[in-house]
Amino acid sequence: MRTYIDRARTRVEREREAVAEKRDAYDRFRTRLESTPSQPRSDGIGETLVSSGTSASRPIREAFTETIAPVCEDRPRGELLAAELGEEIACALTTGGPTPALQRAVRAEVDQRRDELVAMDRALDAEADSLERASEALDPIRNWLLEENETALSDCGFEALSERHARLAAFRADCDDLGASRQTHLGKTTGAGGRAGLRHRDLIGYLYDGLPVGHPVLVTGVRMDDLCGECQRAVRDHLVRRV
User: Fold this and answer.
1) Is the domain of 95 the same as that of 39?
2) Most buried residue, 94, 140, 203, 226, by CB count within 10 Å?
3) Residue 89 CA: distances (Å) to CA of 37, 149, 225, 235
4) In terms of Cα–Cα distance, which of 100, 121, 113, 111 is closest to 47?
5) What does the alpha-carbon distance between residue 148 and residue 141 come to, in Å, rounded to a whole number?
């Protein structure tokens, strides 16, 4: 039976694959930009992003279409350009040629996007590690409860009941520790050399959208703690009857 954490781990792995694919696409796009000639200005006016002749910027648009567009959602190229490189650059690429200023702006934006993807990749690695630790903490509790549920409390002696009560108390402490650790994790930010950063709390809001719960670790930990609490009360009732 798949748990919320299992589903979260599947979602993280899929997102890691998508981010790796997009990072590779941006690397290829950046390489293509280096070989794209610029259109110098000759009117004596200060540099702007736009010059005359939209056909001159065709190589950049084509490079974008061949590298970035295939790894993005299916949208018109103009919308994708705006979403990935910003409205001003998208407008410049569709209304004029690639001036030196425009090429610098495109490269700077591409470098920023690459940094953001590096930060995203690192944040996903951290999330995967956090989910792994959660599974390591909660899976033994779940397995123990399933195994011990097959033995009726009425068949247990006082010593066995006392051991069960102590074990359940330890499990509940583990759940509390996991919750505190998870909250600390969510409060952190993962960066890429100071150039880009991603808050883990923001990441999971996006990452787990559409799943039955938005906080798979916290919800699973709380429910496991509640279940241990119910079992502990049942054991305590039998202990009181044996006194």
Assistant:
1) yes
2) 203
3) 17, 63, 52, 67
4) 100
5) 11
Indicate whether 224 and 179 sit together in one domain: yes
* Residue 3 resides in a domain: no
> Percentage of the chain with pLDDT > 90?
66
Same domain, yes or no: 94 and 141: no
Low-confidence ranges of the chain (pLDDT < 50): 42-46, 48, 50-53
Last residue of a domain, one of 115, 148, 170: 115
Q: What is the pLDDT of residue 1?
A: 57
Do 131 and 230 lie in one domain? The reply is yes
H or E stretch at 232: helix 216-242
Beta bridge partners of 189: 199
Please, what is the end-to-end C-alpha distance for the chain in angstroms?
39
Which H or E run contains 45?
none
Model confidence, pTM: 0.85
Contacts of 97 (CB under 8 A, 6+ apart): 39, 50, 51, 52, 53, 54, 55, 56, 57
Q: How many structural domains is the chain composed of?
A: 2
Domain span including residue 128: 117-242
Dist. CA 60–CA 103, nearest whole Å: 9
Q: How much is the pLDDT for 35?
A: 83
| pLDDT score, position 207 | 95
Count of beta carbons in the 10 Å neighbourhood of residue 71: 15
